[in-house]
């Protein structure tokens, strides 16, 4: 039987909270509703995946823990603030015409569909909607969260690190998440967001709020004072909850110290949803003018084509690059020997999401149908990037202000990142890019960014699209990141010191090495094992002599590497785990070793593949 719930959606001042969960959800929902106070200022709609073959007792279970009244959604039940509405099993629900519409689900379909509920609620409530994704398997809710964010709503997820089943909250792109919290904190976070949406900050915080908006205007030339105060405050409170800061003044101090958090704040205020092929005219220029020339240069030199997407967030830009390069090479009778695309971001969660390569349908709206069919395959409710494209890419965490960059780059995209940096940090980043780029390599910035703080190494090639050419001869060594290590001849490391340090590492490890480790560490070439943070875990005698490392491998890398500024030997190259070559001959992975190496890196079985083909293989 279909029914309709009418009420608050028609009130322009109303807010709505939608909660979705799956496996482990009954316990999570019980703890969530237990934290909601009787004066909760909005209706709550709960969609929990339930077995359609069995009667649902979810409402009765939640009543034991909740102080708020609970009602199962049936015919003609009006929405009310401070009431929890539970969607019955095997039913689909949509928000439309000022209410909730129920209809039967198709056989075998997931019901209730969290994606469907969130998408319809986003259309009805816009920025007055708060979506909460709790524990669960699968990815239901990820597509709906994309639509919630695009409509200006707020997205809160249970911390995947502590969720009973992390798949569902982890499937939401980090770029969409306004707040991530442990289960027992979510009720307080949601209440804070709803209260923030009621208007201007309280008097004690009003001055700090105005000062914060003034500071954003100074740094990024964005004036938020004309925006709806309720929306700005709600999004600000979301970031404050995520960073566990109590006052606006404390948060303002935090973003001065952490550019990444400043970027998250401004992105949240702008309702910035990352997209594939953002700014189509830029991608047309890259495909038709820039990349073909770089491909020809690489082919003539008999070398690989190297591309870097710096600040790639959740991966849309990096995969757009990979698709564009693949399309160019598909029509090239003599492509370069290899293609390697580095994609980096300081946000570990964003990199983990990008590495998975699974996106909701809404995220692909800017991908041409022929490219979607060629480079994506259906995966549950979303789309997964095909392996032959992913095999050309190396994802890794990277801090532009502190990490050694990748060398010999032909094309470097860093769009809408520098705008969040102070001028001093912008200069460090541009120095880093100048060091990384080959002569005549290209740098692409965002539409509001320029190289004005460091113009000398760059010639402007396309002003509107912010495409710059690296001037030959301008190769600076940035002051912001650790220097390239010296060679063994320059260091003069005694062999007995290297052997002693290697034995000390083995003793500290306290456990026999795995067979593969034993083989690698016994080689005559230098071998370094790094973890997912690029810190050294194991290092053999030969590598110690090459790098001049005398301390234990457990010491932080930045403290054991020499700080002298020297070029590495040209024969030093990282050793990466091999991957199968893609089916399309035009996009070949460069993971295999084609010439002898003097230094190799390996990784622990639990660590991610490290993007260590930089000036220093031991980062």
The profile of the biggest β sheet is: 7 strands, parallel
Note the overall shape.
Answer: globular
Computed CA radius of gyration, to the nearest angstrom: 27 Å
**E-strand count:** 23
What is the rounded distance between the termini? 62 Å
| Number of helices in the DSSP assignment | 21
Secondary structure class reads alpha/beta
Q: Which strand order do you get reading across the main beta sheet? A: 4-5-3-2-8-9-10
Unreliable stretches (pLDDT < 50, length at least 5) are: 1-10, 481-495, 508-513, 553-586, 588-619
Average pLDDT: 78
Beta-strand content estimate:
15-25%
Q: Helicity, in percent?
A: 25-40%
Word description of this protein:
By secondary structure, the chain is of the alpha/beta class. 35% of the residues lie in helices and 18% in strands. The protein has 21 helices and 23 strands. Strand 9, helix 5 and strand 10 (179-181) form a beta-alpha-beta unit. Helix 9 crosses helix 10 and helix 11 (280-301) crosses helix 12. The longest helix is centred in the middle third of the chain and has 22 residues, at 280-301.
What's this, in brief?
The protein has 619 residues and is of the alpha/beta class. It contains 21 helices and 23 strands. The strands form 5 sheets. The chain has a 7-stranded parallel beta sheet, with helices on both faces.
List keywords for this structure.
619 residues; alpha/beta; 7-stranded parallel β-sheet; 7-stranded mixed β-sheet; 23 strands; disordered C terminus
Lay out the secondary structure.
Blueprint: E1 4-6, E2 16-21, H1 25-34, E3 44-48, H2 58-63, E4 70-72, E5 84-86, E6 91-96, E7 99-104, H3 114-125, E8 129-133, H4 142-150, E9 154-158, H5 167-170, E10 179-181, H6 183-196, H7 203-220, H8 229-243, H9 248-257, H10 259-269, H11 280-301, E11 305-310, H12 316-330, E12 339-345, H13 348-356, E13 358-359, H14 369-375, E14 376-379, E15 382-385, H15 387-390, E16 393-397, E17 409-414, H16 423-436, E18 437-445, E19 458-462, E20 467-470, H17 488-491, H18 495-509, H19 515-521, E21 526-530, E22 536-539, H20 541-547, H21 557-560, E23 599-603
Parallel strand pairs: 2-3, 2-8, 3-5, 4-5, 8-9, 9-10, 11-12, 11-17, 12-16, 17-18, 21-23
Antiparallel strand pairs: 1-7, 6-7, 13-15, 14-15, 18-20, 19-20, 21-22
Helix pairs in contact: 1-6, 3-4, 6-8, 8-10, 9-10, 11-12, 18-20
């Amino acid at each position: 039987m279909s029914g309709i719930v009418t009420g608050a959606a028609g009130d322009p001042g109303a807010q709505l909270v939608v909660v979705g969960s799956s496996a482990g959800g009954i316990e999570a929902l019980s703890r969530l509703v237990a934290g909601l106070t009787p004066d909760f200022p909005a209706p709550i709609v709960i969609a929990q995946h339930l077995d359609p073959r069995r009667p649902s007792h979810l409402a009765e279970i939640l009543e034991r823990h909740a102080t708020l009244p609970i009602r199962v959604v049936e015919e003609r039940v009006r929405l009310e603030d401070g009431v929890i509405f539970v969607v019955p099993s095997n039913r689909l629900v949509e928000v439309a015409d000022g209410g909730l519409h129920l209809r039967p689900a198709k056989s075998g379909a997931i019901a209730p569909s969290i994606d469907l509920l969130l998408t319809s609620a986003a259309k009805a409530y816009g920025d007055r909607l708060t979506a909460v994704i709790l524990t669960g398997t699968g990815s239901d809710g990820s597509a709906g969260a994309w639509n919630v964010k695009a409509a200006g709503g707020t997205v809160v997820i249970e911390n995947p690190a502590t969720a009973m089943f992390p798949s569902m909250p982890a499937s939401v792109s980090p770029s969409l998440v306004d707040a991530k919290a442990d289960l027992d904190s979510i009720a307080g976070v949601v209440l804070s967001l709803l209260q923030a949406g009621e208007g201007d900050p309280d008097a004690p915080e009003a001055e700090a709020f105005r000062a914060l908006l003034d500071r954003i205007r100074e740094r990024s030339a964005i004036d938020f004072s004309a925006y709806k105060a309720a929306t700005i405050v709600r999004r600000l409170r979301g970031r404050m909850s995520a960073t566990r800061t109590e006052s606006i003044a404390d948060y303002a101090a935090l973003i001065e110290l952490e550019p990444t958090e400043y970027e998250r704040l401004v992105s949240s205020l702008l309702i910035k949803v990352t997209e594939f092929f953002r700014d189509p005219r830029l991608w047309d220029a890259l495909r038709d003018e820039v990349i073909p020339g770089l491909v020809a240069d690489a082919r003539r030199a008999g070398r690989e084509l190297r591309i870097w997407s710096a600040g790639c967030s959740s991966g849309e830009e990096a995969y757009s690059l990979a698709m564009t390069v693949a399309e160019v090479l598909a029509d090239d009778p003599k492509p370069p020997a290899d293609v390697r695309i580095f994609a980096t971001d300081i946000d570990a969660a964003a990199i983990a999401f990008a590495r998975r390569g699974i996106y909701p349908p809404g995220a692909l709206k800017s991908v041409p149908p022929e490219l979607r069919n060629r480079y994506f395959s259906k995966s549950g409710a979303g789309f997964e990037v095909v392996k032959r494209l992913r095999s050309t890419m190396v994802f890794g965490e990277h801090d532009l202000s502190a990490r050694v960059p990748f060398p010999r780059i032909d094309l470097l995209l860093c769009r809408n990142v520098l705008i969040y940096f102070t001028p001093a940090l912008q200069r460090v980043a541009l120095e880093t890019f100048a060091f990384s780029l080959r002569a005549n390599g290209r740098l692409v910035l965002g539409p509001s960014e320029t190289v004005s703080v460091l113009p000398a190494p760059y010639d402007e090639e396309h002003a509107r699209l912010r495409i710059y050419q690296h001037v030959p001869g301008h190769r600076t060594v940035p002051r912001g990141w650790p220097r390239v290590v010296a060679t063994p001849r320059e260091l003069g490391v005694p062999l007995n010191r290297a052997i002693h340090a290697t034995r000390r590492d083995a003793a500290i490890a306290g456990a026999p090495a795995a067979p593969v480790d034993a083989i690698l560490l016994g080689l005559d070439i230098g071998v370094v094992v790094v973890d997912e943070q690029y810190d050294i875990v194991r290092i053999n005698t030969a590598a110690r002599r090459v790098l001049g490392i005398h301390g234990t491998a457990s010491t932080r890398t930045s403290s054991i590497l020499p700080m002298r500024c020297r070029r590495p030997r040209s024969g030093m190259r990282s050793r990466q785990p091999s991957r199968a070559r893609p089916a399309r001959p035009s996009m070949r992975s460069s993971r295999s070793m084609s010439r002898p190496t003097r230094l190799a890196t390996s990784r622990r079985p639990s660590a991610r593949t490290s993007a260590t083909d930089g000036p220093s293989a031991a980062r």
